[in-house]
Design a protein that fits this description.
- Keywords: Cytoplasm, Lyase, Signal.
- This is Ethylmalonyl-CoA decarboxylase.
- It is an enzyme of class 4 (lyase).
- This protein is mainly alpha-helical and 166 residues long.
- It has two domains: 109 residues, 2-enoyl-CoA Hydratase, Chain A, domain 1 (Alpha-Beta Complex), CATH 3.90.226.10; 45 residues.
- It has eight helices and six strands, in the order ββαββααβαβαααα.
- A three-stranded parallel β-sheet has the order 1-3-6, with helices on both faces. The chain has a three-stranded mixed β-sheet with strand order 2-4-5.
- It is globular and about 55 Å long.
Length: 166
Amino acid sequence: TLLCRLPLISVALVQGKALGGGAELTTACDFRLMTPGSEIRFVHKHMGLVPGWGGAARLVRIVGSGAALRLLSGAARVDPERALCLGLSEETLSSSEETAALEEARAWLSQYTEGPASVIQAVKKVVTAGRELPVEAALRTEKDIFGTVWGGPANLQALVRRPKHK
């Protein structure tokens, strides 16, 4: 849960097998990327367990209750193609080689992390509030966070540039 709430955008890069607790850990990240031949598998049932680190609750929010029930009760192997179909993964990288995959993941993530850190952190906070809080509390939080960036350096610089919205 602390990983979910970090004031930065996180990505799990699955290279090889993310089983049990490793599968749970992927659900704590904002995004999941997989390499060819990798898999995510919630094997808890085979150990006489259920996820205990929040993986089940987060999995339901990521893929929906029906798919989560199938993945948990079936201990199903989720390859990159199925993960994409379920919404469990954002993309399958082209390389399985460790260094190349890490570089590809960094490049992929940069589209979400480029820009003023204060704005990226504010985006993460409003999304976290929207995910975790009742809607009225999330709306108040969003309004409060908006107030921290309105008129701030990034906002003023954007106004000077006068970007056109397409």
